[in-house]
Amino acid sequence: MPKILIIEDDTAFSQMLSRFLTRHQFAVTVSISLREAISQIKTSFFDVILSDVRLPEGDGVSLLSTIKKESPRTQIIMMTGYAEVKTAVKAMKKGAFDYISKPFTPDSILEIINDALKNGGIEEKERIDGEVVKASPSTSDFILGNSESSITLQNHVQLVAPTNMSVLLIGESGTGKEVTARAIHNTSSRKSKQFVAVDCGAVPKEIASSEFFGHVKGSFTGAVEDKIGHFEAANGGTLFLDEIGNLSYENQIQLLRALQERRIKRVGSTQEIHVDLRIISATNEDLRKAVAEGRFREDLYHRLNEFSIAIPALRERGNDLLQFAEAFLKKANSEIGREVVKISEEAKTVLLNYAWPGNLRELKNSIKRAVLFSEGASLEIEVLPEHIKTKTKQNTEAKDFSKSSYEKERILKALKQTNFNKSKAAELLQMTRKTLYNKINLYQLDV
Ligand SMILES: Nc1ncnc2c1ncn2[C@@H]1O[C@H](COP(=O)(O)OP(=O)(O)OP(=O)(O)O)[C@@H](O)[C@H]1O
């Protein structure tokens, strides 16, 4: 169960928030002062800290460096009043994950927490900790697009969704593989059952069996209670295996066996459990190459790849980019309480001229930041990040980001620029830290 620390001196508000988050299966601790919060952080680990900006003993931003030092994996979300946006921006520059303006809606706080957990490499939405939380089928935000590549994508999704075929989604980071997997699940007959997403790169090899198949109490040190695994959690529904290429060879064998037999055993148990699930997996590397190099089992590759879908890079989606940008603008407005109603023509030209190596995720983040810096009702060129204005498709030339040599070079450069601070490098590269760690492993970078 993800752990959240709320730092807030308004006790009525913190109690209400605490009750709400507890109902949504978070383990919540509340601190009413900075001093109390510091002692909590020193003694316990929190996945996410929600801190008020203004606290009686000082500003919540001053806590950031202590948190980053004591617990670098913890994601911090600042809660602000409308007048405190500048402080929030300062907090984000100092490493806070995001901020939210008070008053906020229950949906928006849940969404930011989910994003923060994802950023920290924790799969939250369908977390499995003795109990299963149903994924919310959020297709309402899903944008189809009108470009040829978007239409082909849509046709493939429609075609394969009603079947039981295993689907392999192939695309660069941030192109929307997880969103597509959810769309397939939500259009399938399994939609009323669980969609469970697992980041295979984040599952430590040693405990992968327990993560996938569960365990019984006492089966190993640390198995203090019975736990169901991802397979059982997704029973009847869809299991989404993200970054499948990162699964160790040994774990590939276990996965293949479970898929062939459609039966699993919890670690430490002899009882077989029948599982009926659909597998959707995703990769941003060429798995055929991994097979040829002996890093990925061919039999598993064929089992996962009954149908493959290439998710187009944003630069291949033509003017759909503006449709995405406008939808992200609306979303950012509602999340951060702004009313930027349009994107200026000059800013649109800049957006269309940039190559977007980080794809939709990079566009979404750039629009959100631009909304944050916008002062009027129109998003102007000035609030767009500098590199977007200078690095156009033309001067990025044919340096296709999907080509690993270019990507590796870019990652190394960003790491050097940030003095090997991975959070900052990930920010610069417009990718999540999780993706950066995966890529460091993939390219075997010694950093
Ligand atoms: N069709 C879409 N409509 C609206 N938003 C989208 C769409 N596709 C992707 N997004 C947004 O783009 C971002 C990246 O999407 P997603 O996480 O699915 O990408 P991914 O390819 O799985 O990334 P990674 O390889 O890094 O795991 C998310 O914020 C998602 O909400």
TrEMBL record:
Domain of life: Bacteria
SMART domains on file: AAA, REC
Biological process terms in GO annotation: phosphorelay signal transduction system; regulation of DNA-templated transcription
Organism: Flagellimonas meridianipacifica
Phylogenetic classification of the source organism: Bacteria, Pseudomonadati, Bacteroidota, Flavobacteriia, Flavobacteriales
Keywords associated with the record: ATP-binding, DNA-binding, Nucleotide-binding, Phosphoprotein, Transcription, Transcription regulation, Two-component regulatory system
InterPro entries: AAA+_ATPase, AAA_lid_NorR, CheY-like_superfamily, Homeodomain-like_sf, HTH_Fis, P-loop_NTPase, Sig_transdc_resp-reg_receiver, Sigma_54_int
GO MF term list: ATP binding; sequence-specific DNA binding
Gene3D superfamilies tied to this protein: 1.10.8.60, 3.40.50.2300, Homeodomain-like (1.10.10.60), P-loop containing nucleotide triphosphate hydrolases (3.40.50.300)
Pfam families recorded: AAA_lid_14, HTH_8, Response_reg, Sigma54_activat
Domain Response regulatory: from-to ranges: 3-117
Name of the featured protein: Two-component system response regulator HydG
PTM sites of type 4-aspartylphosphate: D52
Metal-binding among keywords: no
Domain Sigma-54 factor interaction, first and last residues per copy: 143-372
